[in-house]
Amino acid sequence: MSRQSFIDNYFKMKGSRSSPPSLEAKHNICAKKVKKRSLSLIKPITPTKSPKVSKEIKNVQHSDEENIWENSCVVDLTLSGESEKTSESSTSTIIYSPEKNLNHLTRPLINDSPSPTFTPCFSPNTAQESLVPKTELDSCNAETNQGNNNTPSVVKNFRRTIEIENSEDTRQELHNYQTPQKSKVTSTPQSSQPSTSISPRAKEKFFSPTKKRSVVKRTHNTAKRSLGMEMSSRQPCRILFEEDLFTAACDGMDDKTIFLLEIIDKFLNEVSMRKLLTEESQILLTDCLQVVKPGMRLVCRLYWRKEGWYQHEQISTICSKENDPLDKFDFQQAMKSLLEKKLLVSDTTENITFNDYASILKKDDLTQICKELKIKKNSKKGAIEALSTFCKQKTNISNFLSGFKSSNAARVLQMMRLKAGSCYKLSDLARRTLNELYILMYLGMDYTIIREKRLELVLIYDKIKRETYPIDKDMELDNASVVFRTRDEFQRYLTAHDTYEDFLTRTDVVEKCNIVKQVYNLYKRITLGEMESYESLPKWLHRFTPANIYIKILETGIQDLKRVMQYELAVDILTTLINNTTFRQHRKADWYAEKALILHSCLYEHNDAAELLLKGFRCPTMSEEAKDSIRPRARKIAYQKNAPLSDSLKEQLRVFTDKEEILENNLCCKHIYKQPMDRIGKHGKVKFETRTPEGRTMQEAEEYCIDHYKHTGEFTHGEHWEGRIVKLLFSLLFWDIIYSKPAGAKGVFLSHYQLCPLDLFTDAFYDNRKKDIDSRLSVIEAASEEKLSSLLDDAWNNRPEGELSEFPRGGITLNQVKEVSSCLRPSGVAALCSRLGRHYRYARSGFPDLTLWHVTDRRIKFVEVKTDSDKPSMKQIQWMQYMRERGVATEFCYVGVHTTRQRSRHKPGPDTTALPSPRPDL
Length: 922
Known about the structure:
Fanconi-associated nuclease; 41 helices; nucleus; Fan1-like; hydrolase
């Protein structure tokens, strides 16, 4: 028999029930029943509407039906009589993943029921035998003998099939064949058991005033109507496909909602990440993929909006698309789904306070309530204050006479409740879960973006290539599991993180001091095991530990403690910070200097201050550059005449303070005498009045000095770039090294939205890339000027102009960069990049203000500008000393009328200039 004739006879036999079917027909019917029963185990994502399917998915629909079940299996709990009874009370859920082989079982599937027995059965689709449970075959034979033509319809929401077609012709024939409509069978059944067949009912219609025509009334769970009778007697496990859930959930959603769904799906697929959230939060995130549309759009909007209650009309507006009101039925189904899955809460389950209603209601509603209460107020603020005062008043006799037995507060709340109507808000569980999810999934990103609710804008700009990030999208990143091993560790980090955020928002000094005291106690209560766990992390991941966050709060709070004169507590905290040998070690020199200042100037313990500084100078873990920052304090104590300090301590201090390289007067300088403009108050930058062809103008000190250098003809170009130029040179020549993942360094890149690698601001940056950095420095130093220019061209053109990174271009053009590099020569460029590459965290600041160069003579100079009252920082002196030692011209430029008053400055001499402005109009 040919394949086509076999199929025709099969459906012909199925359409006629006058004669008993043959054994082969029984097997065919049984095979189809098993197929449809297995299909009935699959439930759609949404109970109301089928998910929209794109054209690309429709084109591959039938091939997907044949291949999707190759690595899947169907579990049926209905095996025998007793198992059917037990399965009615429990429904198990399986989330299917081909890579994990059904490892997403959330509850026990089968109790202690016997394993099913399989029997070979002939399949009309594959034209071969396949194994079928014996219970299925028996029930199929029984129904066939009764002549019951009950064939459930197939759910259209999920295009699934169990049997894999071996022949392309067979698949095409079965696809093209249309099953004839069932005719009503009038034959008397052989058994007294009633038939379970369902006849299709007429579709109800109603007149739509919007569409101006009759439309079919949509009913709940239409796609599963024909499965109702068969599913009512059994509750099999549901098989949910992760890929299908995510695809269907994103279909028709806007970009912002898809961003949220993407990180939810990514989180659920990472086994190492799930343990970091509570089981309740994991269930909530799983339900997010099954929310009726457009429910997740509402959840996303409410999370980024102001936290609080919203009226029913506001919720509908937020949930709708712009200029496209949401269908009322769809909105009701979405709200019902959100409430059932505990993503939203309503005013019927939680009490709303007076302040909540006051923020919800508008001015007209509040003034109307005041009018009913005989209160005359016309503004919203006045109405709120009057109602608040009215609520605090005791009930008077008029309430009793008018029939009101409740208090004034209850009466006002009832009136406000009637005005507001139904109100909803994002549940506390949903808000907490989403907050923790965003922190985990964007751990490497600057948290300021999340705090200021700019994350969605950042993601949109990155998608449209308006503001991109330097991390390669194809790079395999680490996740938060390299930082947090358990839920407890993540919870401790969240506690410390929330404390730090609360500390930043405080403005009252007393409140900040109270937080500092609490944090100090929390830091001292960290157990030895917890501290060892934090210290075992790489240096660049210490920022995500509670110990590091607490230390950051404590060192910031020292200034607040000094304001309220709690010097003893400040000294105790600084002692604890100095004894710490792991976290924020780049700040240790500042801790020594601050503690010595308090001991010397506030507590007048001069000997203790001197001994502390000597201990700091002998500290082996501090670099010489770091020790330079405590030398000014040591010099002041050592040379103070009225300080009761022993001679031995003075001599020891003077040994460490007498370092000529860090003195300001050892560097070249230029003095320009110019009267500054008067300032209102003591704050603000000093400005100078200048005459130009366009008229009088005001210039800051840096701009005035640039004009001065240009007018003298010493340089043709000048810009106030500070350290941007040297950091830009470094980034262009070392970009591939900076943004590549170093071998063996986990957690350097945790997010595609990082501005830089996390180890950039640690000493480990150079250690992790030592070989590559040294090799690149050698290439630059040995390169010709043409080769160096070519390297800059390639690096500049390979990066988009709007890219965000630690190294912004900041208005600097490629031509300017090439001119500066040409004046520096390859050796000068290599010298500047060498200091940044080896000590970027320390050397990224302190570079001189002005960059001046002469295009023709190829001369360049870096100038630090100071007015009469300015003092250079230690980092600025170190940068200038470093460049002078390597042949790069640099100097100070003092501008004002008292430029020689400070003793630390170099007085005018042979190597300096002291002259008024060469231009009479300046």
